[in-house]
Every structure is written in structure tokens, then in C-alpha cells.
Amino acid sequence: MFIMKLLENVHIKSVLHFADVEIGKVTADSRDVTKDTLFVCLSGGKVDGHSFASEAREKGAVAIVSERELDIDLPQFVVESTREALAVIAGNYYSHPAEKMKIITIVGTNGKTSTADILSEIFLAAGHRAATIGTLGYKFGRERSSGNLTTPDPMELHRHLAEFCEKGAEYVFIEASAHAIYYDKLAGIRANATIFTNITQDHLDFFSSMNEYAETKLSYFSPANTALAVVNSDDGYGQRLIAERKVPTISYGTDNPADVFAIDIIEDSGGLSFTVNAFDRIERIVTPLHGRFNVYNLMAAISTAMYFGLDLPRIAKALERIPIVPGRYQVYEIKGRRMIVDFAHTPDGMENLLVDLCHQKPGRILTVFGCGGNRDRLKRPLMGSIAAKYSDLVIVTSDNPRDEDASAIAREIVKGMPEDTDCEIVIDRERAIRRAFDLSKAGDTIVIAGKGHEEYMEIKGQKIPYSDVAVLEKLTR
Fold first, then answer.
1. Nearest CA-CA partner of 224 in 94, 84, 43, 111
2. Quick check: helix, strand or coil at residue 41?
3. In terms of DSSP bridges, do strands 102-107 and 171-175 run parallel, antiparallel, or are they unpaired?
4. If you count Cβ atoms within 10 Å of the first and of the last residue's Cβ in the chain, which end, N or C, has fewer?
């Protein structure tokens, strides 16, 4: 593809050494440069891509996209934002696959993964070809493959979209992380609809304040990014989106007026049931999914599916046999104990999970969790406080300590707990789970939070194989 075709819809400020060269590859990583490569100099990250432009030239780059003029004798295209430009270039490179399918993005702190998976299952049950991109990786139909980021970088994102398109996908559900919005990874894609789940504290290691984090997520809701907002009316930020109506909006909730709302919510050992009023159509929903917070995810999915023409009885039928989302409120019965594996890794996620369990009035609640290293330190004592409030025993353990000392992280968590909290620190996560099991008795509930579907422990730059589910399987032997 020639460079000017590749740069369609990219706002170019200036050009140096112009030549309409042919491009065989696009990358922002100088290590991946080969001959006929367009090298995009990304800024705003840990390293400045402009520093690697000369290296890219030596390896065979034939053109540069940058944010400033560089002293290099290659065709240079200077733009305002190379990150936005890369996203648009990626769409051009793969012939705009997003325009050939219905794209539904999901924005929020909690619930993105569950909502995407629920939607995928609803549309598959209705006979549509559906795919998801998010924390669990990539899914086409019911086949999954792994991924590294909630929202992939633009070239990888569009490569997968092109593959889905080639396979005949009609709908793609994409989790849009705060980092992806901040870095314009989705620039050039106008979603057919965007779901807003909620905003609670997270990622304050990256964002300077809760306000910046929230404003970043809210900034996505513009006519350039989406044609419709499907909004949680019980969330304060959701109410703001509804009031501002920068894009057409439909709403869902339980406490505030909404287009789709749930009443008569019941949770038992078999899962959830509730009556939904969706655009004045009424249906009883029965599903094996657990957790009252999942009522919101289900309503978001119901609202969206109906907007795209699926009828409510068919949606209800699909939800009756929907599979559990990996690592999200997975329930195991082991020797009389109820053991729950959940990805809850934010204060709000932890509180929603534990409050839900308290409402069920189980036996004692024993909670095993940790906090990630090199991430938001402010949430550590908050999560300690929440775990202490709703648990009879807390065991603080390791959870991807990365470059930090796991024991130091545990001590920061414990600082948020009252002095009389029944708490232990057991850094080895498998030992911590076994300790909780040994201290429990039949009828108790053991919560294992923070890692969910993950199959590794990240320590000092290495991902060491580890799985909470695998540990539970050992306990059954």
C-alpha cells in the first residue's frame, strides 16, 4: 500500500522529503522494523519513539510519522498526535474492518468483561456470528485465544477485527479501557453503541486523580466515537451522561428511572432471577450467573440486544443457559465449603462481591486477596478496610507483585483494617488458599479475589504459571 493511501483521514501538519513510497509494514516498535516499514514515533509513554527514528531508518524504514520534524532524510509526515494517527493508519492498513461489522464498545471500571461475554452469548444463541475483544483475550463464536491487554494496540486490534470480518462476524464487543481511551487506540472507529457500566476508583498509579480517570472515560462519549450510549442510571457518572446527552442515550438501572429496569431480584444457589421491564415489555429472567451486581451487566446486555432488534423472550431463553464467565464469580463446592473465584481487584468490585455474599447469609466469610504491585497504592488500605468489614477472617496474600515486595504491599493493605480484625498474612498464594480452607468448616464461604481467570503470577518481569482454579482442583483430591 502506498503511503498516501495509508495516511487517508490522518490530519497532517507538514511533510518533509515527500515521496509516495510503498509500505509493506507499519510499526511503532523500532525492534520490529524491516525493509519497507512505516515507523510511527509514539510519544507520551515510558520512552519517546522519536529517539528511535534513526535506528528505524538503519533497519529499513522508508517513511516516518512524527510529532516534530526530525533530521532524517526519509519522507516525514508530521501530525498533532502520533497515537491518534497510528489508530487511523491501522484501520486504513487493514481496509477498515470495523466499518463492515456492528461494533459495540464497553466503557467502565467494573463489569466490562462480563457484559461483553453475556452479549456474545445472547447474539450467538440468536444465530448471529459474534466476537469479543477484552481482558479474556479474543473470542470468535465460543473459541477463545489469549491476549495481553484489555484493549489491544491499534495494529493488533485491527488485525483481529480483519480476521473476525473475514470469518463472517456480524457483531464485535470490545472492552475499551481507560488507557485505550487516553492513548486514542480506538480513534477512527465509530461504535454503533457504547455501554457505560460504572466508574469507581482504579488506575490511580497512571492517572493523577480520580477526576482525571473519570473524565478520560467520559470523554469517549462523543458523536465521533459512538452513535449511542447505553447507560447505567444508578451510577452518578451515568446520570451525568444521561443529563448531558452528547449522544442519543438509553438507560438501565434498579433505583432510578430507566428505559430498562429490574424488580423482584432473587439470588439462591442456582443463580439469579428477576423481572425485567425493558421498553415496557416484561419478562422473568432466570440465569445461572451469581451476584446482584450481575443484574446490571445483564440489563446492559438486554438493553443493547433489544436495541439491535433481538426480542426479549429470545434473550431470556439465552440467559437461562448462559455459561459462567471465566474468573467472574465462579462457584465451587468443595467438601461442604462454598469457594468463589472472582477477578474483583478494585475497592468497588470487592465491596460488591462481599456485600452480595452477606445478603445471602452464608456461614462465615473467609476472604483471600492481595493487590498488584506497581499499581494504584491508594486502593490498598481501602480494600483492606472493605475486606475486614464484610469478612470473618481475612488472609492477605500476593497478587502480581511485579517489581514491589509482596510483604510490603500486604502491610499497606493491613493498614486499612481495624486493629481487632481477624487477619493473617500468607504471601504464598497457594498456601494462603489452603490456610483459609484449613481454618474453614462446612457451610463457610471462601472468597478468592483479584486474579480470576489469570494463569500466571507476575514477579520481577516474569510471568510464573499460577491459577487459583488449579489450586482449588488440588483441594478436591
1. 84
2. coil
3. parallel
4. C
Pair 453, 467: CB distance under 8 Å? no
* d(C-alpha 372, C-alpha 363), whole Å: 29
Instruction: Write down the domain spans for the chain.
Output: 3-93, 97-320, 330-475
pLDDT of residue 419: 96
pTM of the model: 0.93
CA–CA gap between residue 330 and residue 322 (Å, rounded): 13
Question: Is 103 in contact with 308 (CB distance < 8 Å)?
Answer: no
Burial of 398 (0-12, 13-18, 19+ CB in 10 A): buried
Q: Which three cell numbers stand for residue 147?
A: 491476549
Helix ranges restricted to H, 126-209? 154-166, 178-182
Do the domains 3-93 and 97-320 sit in the same CATH topology, yes or no?
A: no
Interatomic CA distance for residues 308 and 321, integer angstroms: 21
Contact 273, 285 (CB under 8 A): yes
pLDDT at 362 over 80: no
261, 275, 292, 297, 312 from 283: Cα distances, Å: 11, 6, 18, 16, 7
The domain defined by 3-93 folds into 3.40.1390
Residue 359 has pLDDT above 90, yes or no: no
**Topology of domain 97-320, per CATH?**
UDP-N-acetylmuramoyl-L-alanine:D-glutamate ligase (3.40.1190)
Q: Which CATH number is 330-475's, of 3.60.21.10, 3.40.50.720, 3.90.190.20, 2.60.40.1180?
A: 3.90.190.20
For 12-34, write each residue's pLDDT tens digit: 999 999 999 999 999 999 999 99
pLDDT above 80 for 404:
yes
Smallest CA-to-CA distance from 381 within 350, 347, 333, 404 is with: 347
Range in 175-179, 204-208, 301-305 with the lowest mean pLDDT:
204-208
**What is the per-residue burial (b if ≥16 Cβ within 10 Å, else e) of 339-354?**
bbbbbbbbbbbbbbbb
Residue 376 CB coordination number (10 Å): 20
CA nearest neighbour of 328 among 294, 296, 299: 294
Q: How confident is the model at residue 46 (pLDDT cuts 50, 70, 90)?
A: confident
| Residues 109, 197 contacting (CB under 8 angstroms) | yes
The position carrying cell 504491585 is 373
